[in-house]
Amino acid sequence: MLPLGTVFHGASWQRCRVHQMRNVLSIVPRASQEMLACVLRTIFAQPDAKHVQAQFDEVTRMLERSHPKVAQMLRDAREDLLAFRCPHPNTGARSGPRTPSKSK
Fold first, then answer.
1. Model pTM?
2. Could you tell me which Pfam families the record lists for this protein (predicted)?
3. Which of 17, 26, 95, 102 has the fewest C-beta atoms lying within 10 Å of its C-beta?
4. Measured distance CA(3)–CA(100) in Å, rounded
5. Which pairs with CB-CB distance under 8 Å and at least 24 residues apart come from 32-41?
6. For the chain, what are the domain ranges?
7. What is the pLDDT of residue 89?
8. Are residues 83 and 95 in contact, defined by beta-carbon separation less than 8 angstroms?
């Protein structure tokens, strides 16, 4: 089997945030899940790549004390989780899912 990068040259991989969130929340006590989910969402709510990276660093630093396993899981998945803010090398378009607009 050929490596993904060979077949899809220049394509990026984005890990699903929902599945990553489920994986993270599955290893913390139920009482901490809501707070942790809110903190993690702040990473993805940033206006640009620079702020996303900075918030990711801040969140993982903060979680290192209280939830070191979570901090390590996030660091291990950093590149895949933050791919949504990286422009595509050929088109400049961002990768990742688009939220469909709702018509009323």
1. 0.69
2. Transposase_mut (PF00872)
3. 102
4. 32
5. 32/66, 32/67, 36/63, 36/67, 36/70, 39/63, 40/74
6. 32-87
7. 46
8. yes
